[in-house]
């Protein structure tokens, strides 16, 4: 190194040394906060483009599952509902009409938005009555795969078919050959082949929610993915089921996970085996760089359960040039390796007790959510822009995919051991009798729900709020 450059480097080192000695000593939690810098933006400047969308929720009859006419509740007469696509910087304005026989709302799962747009009855807005309307308007701050669904009687309303996907694209999206959305769901049909109208059964409440025998992708059991050799596909997976956990297995296809719950990973990881719990999204980068005469299959292999075939892949036709670009998964995610030494702010205890209208109550810290018409004190109040170490202790023998509205977190440990996860989430599956630790920096002020995304558990009380002070 030339002498002058060396001298300069020494000067800079001295200067930054002096700076540090003048400042207050940094605590581990300040360091964790600083490490978070640049993870995701504080704000996005609206670019003036407003996307006006009309959404109507109403009963409908559609060819679903294996193609038979199914009576459902649908957004805009479709199950899944429409895929809304906006670019980062654009404002989404949804003119919503409720033509259901029940009150409802739309919650924008995973989206950092103003609290008043979050769609939680009794917390952020009054429920929309039958025949009523509401306008949701916000400018998403993050590009990625998000979704929307009712937050009223969701174990019934989501099960009847009310869910849709919101894709927020970055200013220049990576040039994939195809960008596809697959919504995974399961259906419990009765003897007449219609949606079994017995919601919140004793069994479903006490076990892991309502699991149905008919597993569908975008509402159908017969999904075939047709690709040409050479194609590179972005596959956006969403689990919209009430209770079923999926674990997709792509066999020997080249399948890399690039985003979880909307946000990019710091680097891609193999996608097979990822536990896609209710509420989770997984974006997969699939490269079909060869032809194949035999159809390939994508399976669901959630631990210890019978594998289910999800879809068939047919690679056919003329070879196309594979789009060559670096994986978009290069986000900044704090490692937070020292974070577990920071004192735990709060441990949430997840458990059940008998009682309540449904006979069983799922509780957080011994309390069952009293329903949207009862005011409830937040379980926890956090300050914006600070690092928090939180813990969840599942003392029950059931699974709980816990979802936080309005924030992302990183899974630090499972049962005290490093999780190995390098990415942010908004929903994490907590296994029976498991203890997990997470780290987070709240960025959005407001009262945010925290609940189990097994919708029967949520309905039976496993719901609370976290207040984030401005
Ligand atoms: Cu998708 Cu409050 O949840
Ligand atoms: Cu649960």
Overall average pLDDT: 93
Low-confidence stretches: 1-21
Count up the helices: 5
Strand content is: 35-45%
CATH class membership of the largest domain: Mainly Beta
What's the N-to-C terminus distance?
49 Å
> Main sheet?
7 strands, mixed
Number of structural units classed as domains: 3
- Here the CATH topology of the largest domain equals Immunoglobulin-like
Query: Total number of β-strand segments?
Result: 30
CATH superfamily of the largest domain: Cupredoxins -  blue copper proteins
Helix content: under 10%
| Chemical compounds bound to the protein | CU-O-CU linkage, copper (II) ion
- Rg from C-alpha positions? 23 Å
Which CATH-level-2 architecture of the largest domain? Sandwich
Structural class of the helices, strands and pairings?
A: mainly beta
Describe the fold and architecture.
The chain is mostly beta strands and 470 residues long. Helices cover 9% and strands 39% of the residues. It has three domains: 50-169, Immunoglobulin-like (Sandwich), CATH 2.60.40; 178-315, Sandwich (Immunoglobulin-like); 339-469, Immunoglobulin-like (Sandwich). It contains five helices and 30 strands. The longest helix is centred in the first third of the chain and has 20 residues, at 3-22. It is globular, with a radius of gyration of 23 Å. The protein starts with a helix and ends with a strand. Residues 1-21 have low confidence and may be disordered. CU-O-CU linkage (C2O) binds next to β5 and β29.
């Amino acid at each position: 190194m030339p002498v002058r450059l060396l001298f300069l480097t020494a000067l800079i080192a001295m200067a930054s040394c002096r700076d540090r000695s003048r400042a207050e000593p940094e605590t581990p939690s300040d360091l964790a906060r600083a490490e978070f810098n640049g993870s995701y933006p504080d704000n996005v400047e609206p670019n003036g483009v407003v996307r006006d969308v009309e959404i109507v929720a109403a009963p409908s009859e559609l060819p679903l599952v294996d193609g038979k006419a199914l009576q459902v509740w649908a957004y805009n007469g479709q199950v899944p509902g429409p895929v809304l696509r906006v670019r980062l910087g654009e404002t989404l304005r949804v003119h919503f009409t409720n033509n259901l026989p029940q009150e409802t709302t739309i919650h924008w799962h995973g989206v950092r938005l103003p609290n008043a747009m979050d769609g939680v009855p009794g917390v952020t807005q009054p429920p929309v009555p039958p025949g009523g309307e509401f306008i949701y308007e916000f400018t998403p701050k993050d590009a990625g795969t998000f979704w929307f669904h009712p937050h009223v009687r969701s174990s019934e309303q989501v099960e009847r078919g009310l869910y849709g996907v919101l894709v927020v694209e970055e200013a220049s999206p990576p040039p994939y050959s195809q960008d596809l959305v697959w919504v995974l769901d399961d259906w419990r049909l009765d003897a007449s082949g219609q949606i079994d109208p017995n919601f919140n059964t004793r069994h479903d409440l006490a076990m892991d929610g309502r699991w149905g025998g008919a597993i569908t992708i975008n509402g159908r059991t017969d999904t075939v993915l047709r690709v040409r050799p050479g194609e590179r596909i972005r596959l956006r997976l969403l689990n919209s089921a009430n209770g079923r956990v999926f674990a997709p297995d792509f066999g020997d296809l080249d399948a890399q996970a690039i985003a979880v719950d909307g946000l990019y990973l710091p680097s891609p990881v193999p996608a097979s085996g990822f536990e896609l719990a209710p509420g989770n999204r997984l974006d997969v980068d699939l490269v079909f760089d060869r032809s194949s005469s035999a159809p390939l299959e994508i399976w669901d292999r959630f631990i210890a359960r019978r594998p289910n075939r999800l879809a068939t892949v047919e690679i056919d036709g003329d070879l196309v040039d594979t789009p060559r670009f670096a994986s978009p998964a290069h986000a900044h995610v704090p490692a937070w390796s020292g974070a577990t030494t920071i004192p735990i702010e709060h441990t949430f205890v997840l458990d059940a007790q008998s009682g309540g209208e449904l006979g069983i109550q799922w509780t957080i810290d011994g309390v069952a959510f009293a329903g949207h018409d009862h005011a409830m004190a937040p379980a926890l109040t956090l300050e914006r822009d600070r690092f928090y170490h939180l813990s969840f202790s599942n003392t029950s023998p059931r699974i709980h995919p816990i979802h936080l509205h309005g924030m992302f977190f990183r899974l630090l440990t499972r049962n005290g051991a490093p999780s190995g996860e390098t990415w942010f989430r908004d929903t994490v599956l907590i296994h029976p009798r498991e203890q997990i630790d997470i780290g987070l920096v709240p960025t959005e002020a407001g009262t945010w729900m925290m609940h189990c995304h097994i919708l029967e558990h949520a309905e039976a009380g496993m719901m609370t709020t976290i207040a984030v002070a401005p």
